[in-house]
Amino acid sequence: MAVKKLKALLIYPPGEQKISEPIPPPNMTIAVLAGALKAAGYQAAQLDAEKDWFDGVRSRFSPRQTELIYDEKAAEAYVNGRAPRKLAAEYDRVCGLLLRYLKIGKADLVGITLVDIRAEPLILNFSALVCHAVQKKFGARTVIGYRGLPKEGFAYLMRKYPCFDYGVYANWGEKALLEIMKDLAGEKAAFTGTVARRGTRVKDYGGGEQRRPLAPTPQYEDHILAKYQAHDGDILARYNSDFPFIKKLINNRKKYLVVPYAFELTCPGACAFCENDNRLPSDIKSVDQVIDELAALKARGVTGLYFVNSSFNNYYKKAEELCEKMIKYKLDLKWFDCANLRVIDEQLLDKMRDAGAVKLAFGVESGSRRLLDLVNKGITPERARKYLEYSHTIGIWNHIELIAGFPSETPRDVQATLGFIDEIKKFVDLYTLNPFYLYPNSRFFREQKKFGVKVQPYPPMDEINFFYPRFRIVEQYSMKFGEAGGLGWEAKDRQIVESTRALAEKIYSVATYRVMGNEHVYLLNCLYDKLGHRNKKLIREMVKLLTMKFKPYNLDFFMDDFRTSFSKEKDLRIFYPLKGTTYLGTEPDGRPAPGSGR
Question: End of a domain among 504, 519, 534?
Answer without folding.
Answer: 519
